[in-house]
Amino acid sequence: MTLPTLVAFDLDDTLAPSKSPAPERILDALAGLLKRTTVAVISGGNFEQFETQLVSRLDSYAGLTEADLENLHLLPTCGTRYERREAGRWVTVYKEDLTAEERDSALVALREEAERLELWERDTWGDVLEDRGSQVTFSALGQRAPVDAKMAWDPTGAKKNALRAAVAAKLPELEVRSGGSTSVDITRRGIDKAYGMRKLEAHTGISLDDMLFIGDRLDPEGNDYPVKALGVTCHAVEGWEDTAAYLEQLLAA
Questions:
Q1: What is the reported pLDDT for 80?
Q2: Residue 6 contacts residue 206 (beta carbons within 8 Å)
Q3: At residue 55, does pLDDT exceed 90?
Q4: What's the mean pLDDT when you consider all of the chain?
């Protein structure tokens, strides 16, 4: 198995449990990759979430040099923001924020449709609605909900998908996607993970044909699916354990 020129990942439920730190086994595999190839992470989470779950842990990982970390590319909020490592710090390459009108329309539509569909929960772990600048996100149980509660709330994805469809009908000028296990993400029209992968191609000079994407939501309703539809080689996983096992095989080849 040949190591791709660039390996890209989803974050939640691919490199880490939802909103949780990346496990040591994943860090070990990523460190091995960073020493040999280019790595990218593209997810609906904001940059602060990337820092908490992954970046801070890699920053302190024994044996990783600055040259290794410069092989890491971060695309939060589904590629509407792009961060690269330069001279020991993370530098914003671009950030494409929603306008105030787009943000407000998204927030109103999410709340109205969640309430109409009886999906607006009263007892939550943190904010249900979040303005991430370049993305507005609905998290049914709040941003800090435990993984087991989120898995129990919508095990089939039917609730989240119903909300996505209802909000999309009200906001035809914006992109509305199913996000993580209980989330719906809204960005400008045409901006999804395929958009982020094209940006990676432009900024790194690495062809999409030489990239591999690993994610847990490559089904047609999932927010990883646009990467598959773009024609990038993809590998589907069902959790971080699958990712770790696959990377260990990839690195051993």
A1: 87
A2: yes
A3: yes
A4: 94
**86: β partners:** 89
Q: Long-range contacts made by residues 103-108, C-beta under 8 angstroms, separation at least 24? A: 103/131, 103/136, 105/171, 105/174, 106/136, 106/167, 106/171, 106/174, 106/186, 107/131, 107/136
- Residue 160: which of 217, 122, 91 has the closest Cα? 217
The pairing of strands 136-139 and 211-215 is: unpaired
**φ, ψ of residue 234 in degrees (nearest 5):** -125, 155
Side chain identity, residue 185: D
Q: In what order do the strands lie in the sheet with 233-236?
A: 89-95, 81-86, 72-75, 38-42, 6-9, 211-215, 233-236
State residue 190's pLDDT score.
86
Give the total residue count for the chain. 253
| pLDDT (0 to 100) of residue 76 | 93
| C-alpha torsion 204→202→5→17, nearest 10 | 90
Chain CA centroid to CA 73, Å: 13
| 3-class secondary-structure state, position 120 | coil
The pLDDT tens digits for 171-214 are 999 999 888 789 999 999 988 899 999 999 999 999 999 999 99
Residue 26 token pair: 């994943």
Residue 93's φ and ψ, nearest 5 degrees, are -80, -45
Q: What is the pLDDT of residue 4?
A: 97
Among 201, 233, 240, 202, which residue's Cα sits nearest to residue 218?
Answer: 233
Beta-ladder partners of 94: 82
